[in-house]
Amino acid sequence: MLKKLFVTAIVFLLLSTLGLFIYGWHLSMRIEKRFSARRWQIPSTVYSDTTLIYPGQRFSLTLLKNKLQHLGYRPVSHRPHRKGEMRLVASSAEIFLNDLKLPSQTRPGFPVKIRIDGNHVESVERIDRHDFLPILELEPEEIGQFYGHERERRQLVSFQQVPDHLVYAVLAAEDSRFYEHAGFDPLGILRALIVNLLHGSIRQGGSTITQQLAKNYFLTPERTVSRKFNELMMSVIIELSYGKNEILEIYLNEIYLGQKGSVAINGVGEASYFYFGKAIGDISLIEAATIAGLIKSPGHYSPYVDKKRCQERRNTVLRAMQTKNWITEEQLFDSLALPVQVAGSSLPVKQAPYFMDYLTRQLETLYSPEDLVSLGLSIYTTLDTRVQAAAEWALKKGLVRLEKANPALKRKDPNRQLQGAIIVMQPKTGYVLAMVGGREYNVSQYNRIIQSRRQPGSAYKPFIYLAALDTLTAASRLSNAPETYMVNGKPWEPQNFSEDFEFDVSVRTALTKSHNRATVDLAMQVGLDRLVKQAGQFHFTTPFKAYPSLALGAFEVIPVELARAYCTFASGGILPYPLSLKDVADENGNILKQTHVNIKRLISSAKAFIITDMLKSVATVGTARSIGNWGISGIVAGKTGTTSNYKDAWFVGYTPDILALVWVGFDNGDSISATGSSAALPIWADLMKAIPQYISDAHFKIPSGVVTRTVCSETGLLSAGRKCPEPMEEYFLKGHEPEEYCPIHPKQGGLKRIIDGIKGFFKKE
User: Fold this and answer.
1) Hey, is 756 helix, strand or coil?
2) CB-based burial label for 350 (10 Å; 0-12, 13-18, 19+)
3) What digits encode the pLDDT tens for the residues 452-466?
4) CA distance 170 to 56
């Protein structure tokens, strides 16, 4: 009987051992698969473009301060001596720059002093070398992340990057015998049991760092015997498979250390920035002890929740470190009384949401949604956060102003309220600097810049006049008289916005004053089929038909396509592709995707200049002449647009460096009872005043192929001198300039000109 029991026990023991071995092998494979693959889902981070600062640039101290604050620079009362610090002194800013890390370049941080005289940058000086810099590039600003379901932020760090005092602080707080045990610590378990029994409650845990890692990575937080058994098994397997430093590195990157809104802060690398605004290698002893103290209960001990409680926990960690002789008594004494100081953290705000949606559409052609939330990509964009903020502010201000001036525009239903949209582009590159697709993203995610189709009205007229430059000039005459056209067997008569009796006008005047009758007359001379073909060349994707009303912007366009087309005039004839994405780099900084500027020459630089010069007249003496009343004094070319029944109001304006399109209207087509000059133009002006660095007195350069002549303003032919009552300088395409003199003011004979000249000389004497 005893022999049978003994054999049974041996068999049971062998089977149990075999089962344990098989189960352990299963766990080992599970651990190996998890650890050998990508260990964490790292959200991809989206960055704005960098910011350039140089002497002579329009840039106020207030704008500079706001930019530095958005970049996370910390104000200090002393001269900055650590990266990320700044001090404003009188009319200058002293900054210790952060490191600049871009796919195309890296630059270590250094101290600079930026002097500002009024609203202009006077100088940029590198303090440590006393060198004056011709240009300074500030790092890009984080504008968003692509999170997975777990919504975790994590900056991976290697074990070598972690300072020793942080390693010792974590060991003191969580597992002081980490380098001595084999995955679980019987002494630690016994000690915790005794402490908990003495206090009648759970005061200490017996889990080692390896056990915590096994639980966080593979198990649920439930407290059951089976879960604890798996935890112990996995801990031993992890210890047998990996070195202590590698286990600790994984742990330091894994641990949960707080919450930023709905986003979890995981790992000491992210926590270092979240709490102290610095890289992990720069944190001090007391900051390291603070982070280590959070592991036990991040929400309870967070310095953003209770600084006193956080300090008490930190000091407990410091005392434990001194007990293990990891710090000296002097270090302990010097540290205990120091207060907890944090960098300050705000809740995450989704910046430029309409731009982010547009960017996502472009990214989805390159990466799957799973890649975007897991690969830890760095996505560098064209967005200028200063321009974006100015566009959002200008639009909200302008819409409120319109509603205040006309209470009938107000709607109680947020989904039916007055709307607007703005896109700001760099004409020569196609870079999208800002995009506001609506009044309030939380109410409507409908992006009116890229999704809506609206009639452009007179904002489309420059393209009609462009098509005429092969046969007509800015000085050519057009009929502005009433005219009836037959369309589909029905009579149609275009009307001017305001009745006038100037029935014969120049091409320049017709565009400047936006005469409808003269524009249709020009369109009929050019040919409607040719105008439809030209629309395709500008890549308008909405259908156009060969109707006379095409000349007045009767066919719908997508706003981003209209802005892109206008870039052709501003860039000297180049049609760019609207770009939101510049570079994509992997988590190691290697470039995965680099977007090159995609441009093509569509028209000659000479034609682009002629149209631009006429659009400058629009902004000085034409339908946009009120722009000066709104505080804009630089060189601007642009065009207003108003559709029938005032359903749409537009203004597209540009300088040599920047172009902005503004649209105002109701989604359902209700009348806004306002024109482009009274509704959209003031918003454009507010936007540009908020970004003075883009407003300059620089003129559009006159390209080759353009000549000037003095012509009679009544006939458009060469001026006959003093007999011409209103001579004017006009630009012409070379080879298209007039050669005949004005017939109604005959050219003076040579002898008579000499006699008149002599008389004039003696009159002056």
Assistant:
1) helix
2) exposed
3) 999 999 999 999 999
4) 51
Residue with tokens 């407003």: 695
Per the structure block, which two tokens stand in for 652?
Answer: 């597209």
- What Cα–Cα distance (Å) separates residue 740 from each residue in 716, 746, 754? 10, 11, 22
Confidence of residue 680 (pLDDT cuts 50, 70, 90): very high
Q: Which residues pair with 46 in a beta bridge?
A: 144, 379
241 pLDDT band, cuts 50/70/90, is confident
Class of domain 350-454+558-610+627-699: alpha beta
Given a cut of 70, whether residue 54 has pLDDT beyond it is: yes
pLDDT tens readout for residues 259-288:
887 788 999 999 998 998 888 998 999 999
Q: Which amino acid is at 170?
A: V
Q: Name 536's Cβ contacts closer than 8 Å, sequence gap at least 6.
A: 544
626 is catalytic: no
Q: What is the CA radius of gyration of the chain?
A: 36
Query: pLDDT tens-digit profile of 130-154?
Result: 999 999 999 999 998 887 766 788 8
Q: How many helices (H) and strands (E) does the chain have?
A: 23, 31
- Catalytic annotation on 499? no
Higher pLDDT, 370 or 749: 370
Q: Are strands 74-75 and 85-89 parallel, antiparallel or unpaired?
A: parallel
3-state secondary structure (DSSP) of residue 10: helix
pLDDT of residue 719: 86
Catalytic residue among 152, 174, 231, 730: 174
- DSSP letter for 603, please: S
Contacts of 525 (CB under 8 A, 6+ apart): 468, 471, 472
- In terms of pLDDT, which residue wins out, 263 or 425? 425
According to the model, what pLDDT value does residue 751 have?
A: 42
- The reply to whether 457-555 shares the fold of 350-454+558-610+627-699 is yes
Closest CA to 631 of 689, 677, 690: 689
**pLDDT tens digits for 734-753?**
999 998 888 877 655 444 44
- 421: Cβ–Cβ under 8 A, 6 or more apart, which residues? 395, 436, 437, 438, 447, 448, 449, 452, 559, 662, 663
Write the CB contacts of 187 (distance below 8 Å, at least 6 apart in sequence): 177
What is the C-alpha to C-alpha distance for residues 476 and 374, in angstroms, rounded to an integer?
62
Question: And the tokens for 403?
Answer: 């509603």
Q: Which CATH superfamily is domain 48-146 in?
A: Penicillin-binding protein 1b domain (3.30.2060.10)
Catalytic residue among 207, 302, 458, 476: 458
Query: Which tokens hold the place of 9?
Result: 């026990």
Collapsed DSSP state (helix, strand, coil) of residue 640 = strand
Strands 659-665 and 648-654 come out as: antiparallel
CATH of 152-336, one of 1.10.3810.10, 3.40.50.150, 3.40.640.10, 1.10.287.3510: 1.10.3810.10
∠ CA 545-551-553, nearest 5°, is 80
